[in-house]
Amino acid sequence: MRSTGNPAFRNLPVGRAGHGQYGPNVGFGQPLGGGPDYGMPQAPAGPAERPMTVDDVVIKTGLSLGTALVTGVLSAIWAISQAEARAMGPVVGLMVVSLVVGLVLSLVMIFRQKPSGPMTLLYSGAEGIFLGAISGLFEMIYPGIALQAILGTAGVFIAMLVVYRTGAVKVTPRLTKWIIGATAGAAILMLLNLVLSLLGVNMGLRSGGTLAIIFSLVVIGIAAFNFLLDFDMADRMIREGMPAKWAWFAAFGLMTTMVWLYLEILRLLSYLQND
Asked: How far, in Å, are 7, 26, 86, 188, 189 from residue 184 at the CA level?
């Protein structure tokens, strides 16, 4: 499989080629170049392991997103009520716990490289709680910002799906390497900025000024292009006939990109409202 910027999709096992008893599988729509092992005969799937389809990915992603939205809304309502009562300690504690739980679950999923519906939903729920709490606090300062961030994230997701399906941007090895490099570079800069800020050094990347706005726009663009890699990898999983249960792993990968994109859009909107 082609490499991807999303660590969730790296080094996935190759499934059964989608040309056996189930017939060819239909992917997200963009023609695939295929690597040297694409279409190679693989071990046939068992009776209970039908190959995954687009519907599997859509349903699993929808369930994951729905879980995050439900927990997020409840968390936001609770966070707002606590903030109004000037009880910030519980809110901060919930944010830290949910963030750590989400991080641990994501690392387990990434390193195990095995699909798991319960773990994917738990990850989505934990991230929903974290995003809901932080969105509630932002909402107290900037009314309406959470809805704007949700709509912005949905808009970027839909736009990139259309771009992928129409083939307006081809996911080539060269583009893949560029996106992976840009993602790694952005991650290093954000980590460096965090470390230096703890030491009292301000790089200006998160200060809310012009440089911070530009950096946020660049990061949003990188996250958006990561959707192309996610779609392409899910497409290859479908075309190679991987068992249906792997749709949970595709959903997990898409959720990680969505969480990153939402946070960055929320941050950018807060910068713009400060101007």
From this structure: 11, 32, 39, 6, 9
